[in-house]
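Researcher: Let's do a round of design. I'm pasting the structure tokens now; please hold your answer until I've finished.
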């Protein structure tokens, strides 16, 4: 009697389960929103809607900006803090080289150069200077930006050292020239950034060149004689 060969049955092949697509982390989403908001604010002004920002960041949820940041002021603050670590490191390094010595021009350079150096390090295109120029046209947002700058210990030290080297000025003139100095630094950087982006002619040869010209202008502003209108 012939033996009947057993048919070997193989167990059914396992179906490989693909891992679910990794969901972006909360921090990654925040960063994308910050980058998108900075660009849109720079290009279109601070009136851009939260919905447009979310869309530019690849988010379909209409409330995503409010969820992560709350108000527009909080979003502006988040953008400034996104850039702050590098600027702060540059400030601290420059302060360390002066050790409370130096001229008025040296300390004004300490204020301007960390900003221009940071903008140069970002490559092209950049939007941060134009974002700052737009944000500071709104009184409430301007307060947010400059109050945040004053939380920096190196910045407070720089301002103290600048004040020690200024000529005697009436309080109202001191306040007005301080306001003009902020305007000059922010808008000079924004104009140069805009020109670089558009490949347009500019009187500045580089970010270091812009820094040098801006410091010279600030020296002239602070040392100018006081003229009173009749």
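Researcher: That's everything. Go ahead.
Model: Designed sequence:
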């Amino acid at each position: 009697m012939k033996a009947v060969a057993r048919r070997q049955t193989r167990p059914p092949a396992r179906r490989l389960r693909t891992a679910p697509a990794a969901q972006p982390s909360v921090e990654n989403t925040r960063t994308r929103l910050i980058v998108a908001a900075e660009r849109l604010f720079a290009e279109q002004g601070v009136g851009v809607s939260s919905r447009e920002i979310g869309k530019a960041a690849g988010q379909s949820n209409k409330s995503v900006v409010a969820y992560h940041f709350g108000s527009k002021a909080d979003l502006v603050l988040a953008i400034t803090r996104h850039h702050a670590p590098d600027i702060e490191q540059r400030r601290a390094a420059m302060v360390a080289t002066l050790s409370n010595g130096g001229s008025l021009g040296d300390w004004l350079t300490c204020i301007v150069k960390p900003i221009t150096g940071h903008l140069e390090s970002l490559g092209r295109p950049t939007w941060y200077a134009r974002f700052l120029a737009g944000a500071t046209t709104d009184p409430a947002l301007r307060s947010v930006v400059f109050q945040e700058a004053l939380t920096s210990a190196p910045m407070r030290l720089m301002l103290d050292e600048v004040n020690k080297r200024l000529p005697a000025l009436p309080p109202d003139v001191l306040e007005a020239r301080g306001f003009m100095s902020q305007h000059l630094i922010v808008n000079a950087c924004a104009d140069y950034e805009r020109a670089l982006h558009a490949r347009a002619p500019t009187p500045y040869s580089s970010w270091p060149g812009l820094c040098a010209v801006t410091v010279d202008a600030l020296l002239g502003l602070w040392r100018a004689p006081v003229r009173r209108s009749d």
